[in-house]
Amino acid sequence: MAAGHRTTAAAARRLPQHDRAGRPPALDRRPRPFLRASVVHASPRRGSAHRHRHGVSLVGRPPRAGQERHRRPPQPAGFQWRGALTRRHGARRAVAAGATARGAGRRGPRRGRLGALWPVVCPIEGAARAGASQACSDPRAPLGCAAVNAGTIVIALGGNAVAPPGERPTISNQFRHTRASLAPIVDLAREGWRIALVHGNGPQFGDELARNEIAADQVEPLPLGVLVAATAGWMGYMIQQSLQNALARAGVARQVVTLITQTLCDPHDPNLRSPTKPIGHALDPVRVARLQARGVPVKQEQPGRWRRLAPSPRPSAVVEREMIHHLVAAGHIVVACGGGGPPVYDDPALRLEGLDAVADKDRVAAILGREIAADVLLILTNVDAVYHAFGTPQQKAIRHLSLAQADHLLAGKELGTGSMRPKVEAAADFVRAAVAERIVEPRAIVADLSQGLAALRGEAGTTITRDGT
């Protein structure tokens, strides 16, 4: 009985939930600094102190020199840090009585669950408040240097970025270009942005389509939606692995996950009955004749250049939007809606059914941005901005557009029917929907891949906002 009583008393000392008068301890109401560390979460089985002791800080940076001095040395079994607990709760009582945070009852560095954060976060935010000049690629860059404030961003990455025209699109070349294209995303991840990454698949889809058609007399051709899912799978693997490696090299503790997502469309969309979207590579006369014999629509874009046409219904929703929202909110980088995602429709009896069609990835990115309450839609392409009179000696880059100006531009013929029109449409749709959802100062940006961070700072690309400022 005596031993049991001593064990109970020792447990009570280790967990001081009440004082000797039976009252709960006074709450610690000291103001806390804003810690931009919500993007990294501890393992369910190990706490934040474990991450810090093993060399990974909660803001994605390795501990700096000298931080390890606060690590507790190994102690024999049964040893308890009663002194530290007493000092911590003594400090709480002192603060409740009107003492300062460094006053009576407070000795040594602050311990406890959030103690490991202070040596890492406070100097960074102090440098940011002091206006320290550091590049965003600097491992110690102040939070938010990529833009004014970190938030939620959807990045639409063009498929041509990893398979540029004029180069043989081998897998090794595409991996090389993918790795080179991810530096801005690593910087955004370091600064605490919550990121969803949507990628195009134009050249890659063209390769899959060519394989599909060349082998049509030996194996059954696959429908367009299945080919979209196939490219989303292997391109997602390529982007995920490359980004995981880049984050690890930069010391940024963020997880990357790829989802095969489906894009909900209206089965009665007139675009399904009138294929207009050119897909795949240019066709030689033999392949043109073969496709026409099968009833596949083709079009001569210019003399001697034929392309296959595909139905492209307007997307209305991303089926897996809730899962993406949860993962992004938890701080994970999500690669989703690859190639716009395979289009599907909701059948009253069968539920989800696939469509032999393709969806525009920029429009899908805009819808995803609305569904996860993103602050920014960043469309990265191989053109540095939207232009007036593009392709003429009078061409002029447009740096800022209001919604009204974007609508006026879309109503005219200046953008033509090329790839820039759907990008501007998607950007305007995103801003309009975000304003309706009361997102504070939403913006959509169209910029060259190499200028993504500069565009976020308003120094490059074309930015569309509600009022054009």
Extract low-pLDDT stretches: 7-25, 31-64, 66-148
The CATH homologous superfamily of the domain at 152-279 and 313-465? Acetylglutamate kinase-like
Beta-strand residue percentage: 15-25%
Mean pLDDT: 77
- The Cα radius of gyration reads 28 Å
Strand order of the largest sheet: 3-9-2-1-12-16-17-15
Helix tally equals 14
Main attributes of the structure:
469 residues, alpha/beta, Carbamate kinase, eight-stranded mixed beta sheet, four-stranded mixed beta sheet, 14 helices
Explain how this protein is built.
This protein is an alpha/beta fold. Among the domains are: 152-279 and 313-465, 3-Layer(aba) Sandwich (Carbamate kinase), CATH 3.40.1160.10; 280-310, no CATH class. Helix content is 35%, strand content 16%. It has 14 helices and 17 strands. It has helices spanning 2-14, 48-53, 82-96, 118-129, 171-181, 183-190, 202-214, 224-250, 285-293, 321-329, 361-371, 403-411, 420-436, 452-456; strands spanning 152-157, 194-199, 256-258, 263-265, 277-283, 298-302, 305-310, 315-318, 333-335, 343-347, 351-354, 376-381, 386-388, 396-398, 400-402, 443-448, 462-465. Helix 7 crosses helix 8 (224-250) and helix 12 runs antiparallel to helix 13. The longest helix has 27 residues, at 224-250. It starts with a helix and ends with a strand. The model is unreliable at 7-25, 31-64 and 66-148 (pLDDT under 50).
